[in-house]
Amino acid sequence: MKNIDRREFLSGLAIAGAGLASISPVKVLANNQSQKITRIGIIGLDTSQVTMIISHINNIPGPGYDVVQPLWDSSFEGFRVTAAYPYGSKKIESSIKQIPTYVGKMKENGVELVDSIQALLTKVDAVMLMTFDGHPRVEQAMQVIKAGKPLFINKPFAASLKDVIKIMDAAKKYNCPIFSSSPTRYLKGAQAARNGSIGDIMGADSYSGCPLEPTHPDFYWYGIHGIEILFTIMGKDCQTVQRRHTQNTDHVLGVWENDRIGTYRGIRKGKVTHSGVAYGLNEILPAGSFNDVGHRPLVIDMLKFFKTGISPVSIEETLAIHVFMEAADESKRQGGAPVSMQTVLAKAQS
Description:
By secondary structure, this protein is α/β, with parallel strands linked by helices. It has 12 helices and 13 strands. Strand 5, helix 7 and strand 6 (178-179) form a beta-alpha-beta unit.
């Protein structure tokens, strides 16, 4: 297989992201400076992550929320989820069934329910796009982006790589800040490895649950949690992807710059958790346990983003994660052949 030039691929990422990393920080709260509270709105009440996240912002302790209880400090001061638009998938039954449950949770906690995204945008300063179905994401995100509200995009970012790029390009066009991440990015060991605690990264393995949803690319639905860990440790510069698929397991091997290897194991049978291992020049380090962090560090970064308009994760890295997942699907279609990230990106751009 032809070697992929690293600079060529990185250039492609930058072009596909339409220079989004260079978006100027906006005055996120310019219209709300006199208010003490930054009002946050939610689009989509069809996922349990809604209650996990709101528990930290609105300081809601007790069972039925996050695996880590809220620990109130100055990181959360001045922010509150105040309004929500419930919908939502209109096609995926497992998501539709969850809406009444989370509508009830919002009512219990004083969150106003509205009947449209446009109504939501008149009541909030920032938005979390939480819809569990990626298909409505372009239409939903566009309304927020055109309104200029800082936007956190939960997984799945969209239902195709082409749609991911559409949203990123629109954010560039309208100078609207966006941020997307799985909470698994914040596993303690993964963060320590990324920040240099074990020396240069030689490689990494990650794993997570990986149920498949036929209406979405295989890893967009759930496998992204493990793949986010992999990219947190390895960085964005993956060049080729090769996948082996069976009924119970997926195994994906990526080759990064300097011939470094990172792998992802998607689990559909047996014990399921989200973690991995980082291999450093000086030490080997477990990625850590999700139960030690929950959604708290993600929420802290999200609130900083809502205040500054600066994403803690580069748009190029978020794009590379989605190119990697699409390349894994293409490798599956080709019977496990190695697939170039650059080729996949170019196809999505065309």
